[in-house]
Amino acid sequence: MIDRRTLLAAAGTTALLGWPAHAAKPASTKSSSIKVGSFKVTTFTDGHLSLPASMSAPKADAAARTAALKAAGQHGATVASPLNVTLIETGKDKILVDVGSGPRFMETAGKLVESLETAGIDPEKITKIIYTHAHPDHIWGTVNDFDELSFPNAAYYISEAEWNFWMAKDVLTKLPKENHGFAVGAQRNLKAVKAQLTTIKPGKELLPGINVLSTPGHTPGHISLEIGSDKEAIVVLGDALTHPVISFEHPNWQPANDQQPDKAVATRNQLLDKLATDNNRIIGYHLPVPGLGIVERQGTGFKFNQA
Length: 307
Prior knowledge:
By secondary structure, the protein is an alpha/beta fold. Helices cover 24% and strands 27% of the residues. It has a seven-stranded mixed β-sheet. A seven-stranded mixed β-sheet has the order 8-9-10-11-12-13-14.
């Protein structure tokens, strides 16, 4: 296990990750809600990440990558990647899917609690949190500046494979050096909720109307959630599809942060085919705000249509 000295040295340094820390910009706290059967599904912003454009597909032809980014309205050497956090309300439950970046990752992120409070939602009233995976922008919002739980009364869920990967004693040997900070942060935040956390397996109904889908590759235990019924459902993707052009029109390209690139490619292709066939709506964590849209077939490929 990573020791306390390493933890304190690495916590929250974007330089450790090789990513630029840009000046903070005010986050829009506007939310967007839809009804899916008995569920109310709302997305809230956690701000955005500022990332080198090349990270979107570092092995792709540079001209083709630039064209794909331009088609998404992204120009220059740095792109802004939105952070859309989903809140599911059903009965007495208020369920967050991921918890944002918290205060230790990037100055442009970590706005979730502010967004919730602006909408009149008390973080202490969140009853459940489901992690899609343990990357910083999805899990580092578990604790605040004082290492207190941001959502102290929630029960927490993560896939068994994801837990086993990040909490393994040899996790650093499975990651490039520049991503060792990912493991430090994952362990810090998961250990903080260990007493309230349950590991789960995909392919099962976590709660009535909420099914866990296996979507590995971005991380070894990455999951997505299908909410509702076959006739009316929405799929919360996490990072299974991350870019409105590249993920849909070039699913074989490999983003820098896919930990298992070949498996992630297979997942994207299978998922795109299923989503286009089922015609269900999706919410993408990094898709254009509010992250909502549908997958359509385009020739032999796919395209994203924002709802």
